[in-house]
């Protein structure tokens, strides 16, 4: 069928059976038979034929428009399958939430491109959820169990959250000895689009849901992290974002015996999401494998 379509596209491009035959190194009669066979399979007339000219019918114009992209995709697939698995190539469009993109991906991408110089990467840092089935994105990295069952997902990292504040903030404000103490503190928040914000605490059989408020919120974690370092308030953020500052002593872990999260039953794992395919693009697989390899030192539970 594809060979018939290729002959059809060449006839449209050439404008006649004879010129298409020259381009394809075929006899004009063979070209004509191919078009007859294609029309028979489609049960429609693609050309209005006369001794003077060859004109596409409305159905022929529609079929040609669709057939062009079909053949291009088929050719691209064949080229991908011919590539050496160790040498992926092509454009890779990645969407990642802002903090993970800045902390992990931005430093790793140059190293990946050193290893795979035939790959080009477009990185979009956006905390909005993208739709891989409609947006022009090959790979998305997001927090939480994927809700779209049509997508393939690979776990990259367990996203544990930690409650922190700067030593100067803690010195200047009332002590925090239990979760409910936070109601009297300025808390730096991930934006909830004007909804009330709660932090969830658990320890053995104890559970607390604490409403928190504050004067600084953002969609991503980086801005409010700067607020915490400045001494502006209490922060609940991923451990991989605050770990260097805890080590330096510029942030202090608060209520370390409690597990704290943004949701009572929230899944905080970080996943790489991509569209399923019988022929996955080699550069997608190579990039996921590369970042998993480098994240293993942070979280040993990565996997499919």
TrEMBL record:
PROSITE patterns assigned to the protein according to its UniProt record, in alphabetical order: HTH_LYSR
Keyword Transcription regulation tagged: yes
Pfam families: HTH_1, LysR_substrate
Signal peptide (from-to): none
CDD domains per UniProt: PBP2_CrgA_like
Domain HTH lysR-type: 1-57
UniProt keyword annotations, A-Z: DNA-binding, Transcription, Transcription regulation
PANTHER family, per database record: HTH-TYPE TRANSCRIPTIONAL ACTIVATOR TTDR-RELATED (PTHR30537:SF5), HTH-TYPE TRANSCRIPTIONAL REGULATOR (PTHR30537)
Family the entry assigns: Belongs to the LysR transcriptional regulatory family.
The name this protein goes by in its record: Transcriptional regulator
Lineage: Bacteria, Pseudomonadati, Pseudomonadota, Gammaproteobacteria, Vibrionales
